[in-house]
Amino acid sequence: MILGINGSPRIGGNTDILLDSALSGARNKGAEVEKVILNTLNFSPCQECENARSDGVCLIKDDMRILHQKIREADAIILASPIFFGSLSAQTKMMIDRFQCIWRAKYILKTYRKPEKKKPGVFLCVEATTRKDFFDNAGSIVKNIFAVMDVAFNEELLCSGVDKKGSIREHPDVLKKAFELGARIASG
């Protein structure tokens, strides 16, 4: 199963459309796909709990427990986020911060069971401006969270100059690249 994670607050917006194109490419190759929209989940920010569990399971009982499980079970991850103020959206960053429990178990306590191999991961990102440094910043954060998730950072697809809702449709070449990327990740 290929898990698409939409970090945009705007359903039907540019990030959502781009992610749907990638998932459509994967589905076209016969892959089972699932899309999670972070803005529809009920989860709180990381509380950096002092009495955290040593196995990487978060103490907070909310929708992040379900998402952690979906990420563990997925064969590949496609993470999509718009750029907000030079970085990832708040929804995406809040999800990332909730991996603190796994990061602690994996890197500090060394009690986290790593899988035998990393699953493939893709990063999709859109922004209104044309500032490459915004993409660089977001990409470095995604590379870090993929490492914690045991996901290999295989590819990224970045599209600048899209602001108005749905304006990604004016970039059919980018939508085609997203479709092809989804097909590649489904093909292994």
Based on DSSP secondary structure assignment, what is the total number of beta strands? Answer: 6
CATH topology, by name, is Rossmann fold
Terminal residue distance? 12 Å
Main sheet overview: 6 strands, mixed
**Main structural class:** alpha/beta
CATH class descriptor: Alpha Beta
Question: Can you put this structure into words, describing what you see?
Answer:
Helix content is 41%, strand content 20%. Strands 1, 2, 3, 4, 5 and 6 form a 6-stranded mixed β-sheet that branches. The protein is α/β, with parallel strands linked by helices. The protein has helices spanning 14-28, 63-73, 90-97, 100-108, 132-149, 172-187; strands spanning 2-6, 33-37, 76-84, 87-88, 119-126, 151-159. The radius of gyration is 16 Å and the shape is globular. Strand 5, helix 5 and strand 6 form a beta-alpha-beta unit. The protein has a single domain (2-187), classed as 3-Layer(aba) Sandwich (Rossmann fold), CATH 3.40.50.360. The chain starts with a strand and ends with a helix.
In brief:
With 188 residues, this protein is α/β, with parallel strands linked by helices. It has one domain (2-187): Rossmann fold (3-Layer(aba) Sandwich), CATH 3.40.50.
List keywords for this structure.
single chain, 188 residues, alpha/beta, Rossmann fold, 6-stranded mixed beta sheet, 6 helices, 41% helix, 20% strand
